[in-house]
Amino acid sequence: MAPLPSIRPVTAADLPELVRLDGQAFPSGPYPYFVLRQFLDAYGDHLLVLDDGSGLLGYVFATAPNADHSWILSLAITPGLQGRGLGRRLMSEILERLRSEEVKEVWLTVEPNNDTAVLLYRSLGFVAEGAPRRDYFGPGEDRLLMTLAF
Questions:
Q1: Secondary structure (DSSP) of the chain
Q2: Nearest-angstrom CA–CA distance, 104 and 101
Q3: Cα–Cα–Cα angle for 94, 25, 74, nearest 5°?
């Protein structure tokens, strides 16, 4: 049996691989390279990747704590590898790190029809804050706001 992929903070050397992964996970709206670069510079220790030694299999991005709360900006797993607990591992790790930094609440948004993601977040303790917010990211880009209180 192959060893579990490791979870570690992203590095600048990971950026090309991160861009590839993000484009595969979100083909209709990946982050531009410069945004990923700025996330690295601004939130370095809160950007975790799942690395199997030959490439990145997933990532989770969170903001640094601000006034006792943090945002999960994005969670992605390489297409074809979803459903194997990799997203749960990444989320559990980042939530543990945020908890250890005395964050009181974690927020995220999710596409309301992404049942798999919504179920994952609910299983981790997140709750929906009301109905989906229409046009949250622009016309036709509705999002469900979810929060987790520690």
A1: -PPPPEEEE--GGGHHHHHHHHHHH-TTSPPPHHHHHHHHHHHGGGEEEEE-SSSEEEEEEEPPPBTTEEEEEEEEE-TT-TTSSHHHHHHHHHHHHHHHTT--EEEEEE-TT-HHHHHHHHHTT-EE-SSPBTTTTSTT--BEEEEEE-
A2: 9
A3: 30
- pLDDT tens digits, 73-96: 999 999 999 999 999 999 999 999
Give me the pLDDT at residue 66, please.
Answer: 86
Domains of the chain: 6-102+113-123 (3.40.630.30)
**What strands, in cross-sheet order, belong to the sheet with 56-62?**
6-9, 47-51, 56-62, 69-77, 105-110, 144-149, 127-128
Model pLDDT for residues 91-118, shown as the tens digit of each residue: 999 999 999 999 999 999 999 999 999 9
> pTM here?
0.93
